[in-house]
Specification:
Elements: E1 9-11, E2 16-24, H1 30-43, E3 50-53, H2 62-76, E4 80-85, H3 91-103, E5 108-112, H4 134-144, E6 148-153, H5 164-176, E7 181-186, H6 190-202, E8 209-213, H7 219-229, H8 235-241, H9 248-268, E9 273-277, H10 283-291
Parallel strand pairs: 2-3, 2-9, 3-4, 4-5, 5-6, 6-7, 7-8, 8-9
Antiparallel strand pairs: 1-2
The structure holds flavin-adenine dinucleotide (FAD).
Length: 299
Amino acid sequence: MPNRNNIRHKLGDKGAEIDVSFEFFPPSSDKQNETLWASVKRLAPLNPAFVSVTYGAGGSTRERTHKTVSRIVSEAGLKAAAHITCVGATREEIDDVLDSYADAGVSDIVALRGDPPEGVGEKYQPYPGGYEQTADLVAAIKKRGSFEVAVSAYPEKHPESADIWADIEYLKRKVDAGADRAITQFFFDNDVFETYLERVRKAGITIPIIPGIAPVHNFKQIANFAARCGTHVPDWLRHRFEGLDDDPFTRQLIAAAVASEQVMDLVDRGISDFHFYTMNRADLVFAICHMLGVRNTSS
Ligand code: FAD
């Protein structure tokens, strides 16, 4: 199993030390499985700080998430984080899941509340016998084992939050419960992220806040998703993808350019860690990482 030895990548001309992480989702068919593993194999040599695997809405992928994370640890030798939500599981069931992750050598958990099984926008109801809020889940995970715990953060506030201050207060509760780092919802406006970071620091939150970067594989799809999760899609971004519905090759080139511009600008603002929402596809993320100076460290 390769040893990461805390390698950070140097971005030559900027002198910055960059670290990246990658998010995958558990595959639900043989074809998706092939795509995922091809992507893991392509991205693994870039020596990510960690990779994470999501947990299906409503707790629907418990086994598949477990299988995927365990295989990433045992076969790819990467540090892996399993997402867990409060949805659809009792406290005892979550304890069992945590124990099985510890047995499989999984050191990191991404702890989330999750969305109501009825769908985004419906009223959230805690599962009977389960954890009510994310902060309770974080505290329980820290108590159960020696896991590092990441939580979510929302630069444009979570749709259920009254305002950004309520949202930051909620993040603080998760940090007070033991969260070690936060990964943000994706965003396209770096000014919004910078302002958010300033506010978070002023609120006394000192853990790393890692920006979540979503390369635009498919503009329509990401615009729909952004509308549901409260991410603003700027006009300039819409304009760049206009008229390209039938031109996947050009879309891909533009997507790489857009995401590279975004991360380079964040580097200029002092950010050095990035979490990529890969959608289980490697090419765009590989190209953006290359631009960032993140290269194969084993060759
Ligand atoms: P929390 O941080 O617990 O809450 C979000 C906001 O809602 C809070 O900031 C707060 O303002 C408000 N809020 C929540 N509860 C209360 C309350 N009781 N009182 C007052 N305000 C409250 N979903 C999945 O199903 N599976 C995944 O694998 C997954 N991975 C994710 C990874 C990242 C990095 C992110 C950003 C999101 C992910 N999600 C995932 C989506 C997430 O589950 C939803 O956004 C969900 O609606 C909120 O969960 P959370 O843990 O982010 O919420």
